[in-house]
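Shapes recur. One chain:

:::
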Amino acid sequence: MLTLKLITEETERVIKGLEKKHFDNAKEAVEQVLAIDKRRREAQQKLDANLSEAKKKAAEIGALMKQGKKDEADRVKETVVSLKEANKQLETDMQNAQQELNTLLCQIPNIPYDEVPEGRAAEDNHVVKSNLKECTDKDTVGNWDVNPSLGIDNPLPHWELAKKYNLIDFDLGVKITGAGFPVYIGKGAQLQRALINFFLAEANKSGYTEIMPPTVVNQASGYGTGQLPDKEGQMYHCEVDDFYLIPTAEVPVTNIYRDVILDEKDLPIKNCAYTECFRREAGSYGKDVRGLNRLHEFSKIEIVRIDKPEHSKESHKEMLEHVEGLLKKLELPYRILLLCGGDQSFTSAICYDFEVYSEAQGRWLEVSSVSNFDTYQANRLKCRYRRADNKKTELCHTLNGSALALPRIVAALLENNQTPEGIKIPAALVPYMGCDIID
């Protein structure tokens, strides 16, 4: 969440940032935060004054008793009792104000960086890079007209290819669990495993330490990375134990550093993890969610960094280059979007999406989001680092990205690589797949 220091010292910047994110009643929310904090500070000041006064009165009582002035001492004691009663109420007022403040701060999103463009929705996002053409500042998604022609006659969508080559059984998944839980079979399962191993191997080459975390987390972990409170009801909740199925490995991996003070020399920390991910995807219907386009359970490799503020933008750049390198090696047509303020997530300060083109569907599919959260998550996590020069502790910056999510990568690989002989496997994936074609 936003720090109180930031809201207090840079009030106008915070309001403008929230307005860029199209957060309703931005000014009113900030003013409410400041009013509650003022009430809390006034109670603290009064409490401090009362405690100081009570200390003086205690010394006065001692002096009066030594002088044999018991009646005067008793009257002073009554004043001390009154102060103590007032202090109890002040402490209650402070606790209530702090609780109210924390609740409100959790409802306020992160503010975007200055370079984040204005805009309300996906069509306002900027296409900043593609392997199809040079991009300009005017290339928003709304005016992007570049769709590749891969020269495939009557291309089949991936759900038909999956059936033709017996790779994925969507109906069997419905029987076992429900829609959005596919069953991978034979070379379909082999392709999943090949991609997982490929992505993990590439992350290892880039210096990421692999983590194998739980896929179920407690409430504190969900709160730490901003998934809780669950504003959109997208997390699966195990009510009896009050656990949550993770929507991304970001949650358990980042929470490794909750309530931790790191040494500056150890930054940046670079972790990666393969996990299953679970999302309810409430309200998702229609043709755009068919097949692998939108699932309730899917495999994903996540990269996570913990860094110091002055280096986090460089870390973000390196993460973007890593994800782009994966798409290049998979030989997929891709574009990179800088998300506008209105399309950013609740917690991010800046986010780039990677999309690959689906030949048969004639549309772009998001396969990765790479975000810098600045101190927003770290403030919730109480994740700090100790500076080497003055030993002071400061909030870290947290970053993460998909590298990569498998379902839409698989969809694009199947659709874009279909031939009369079968589905060609990109050269970089052949060592992990054990074959160069699925026939």
Summary: The two ends are 51 Å apart (CA to CA). The mean pLDDT is 95.
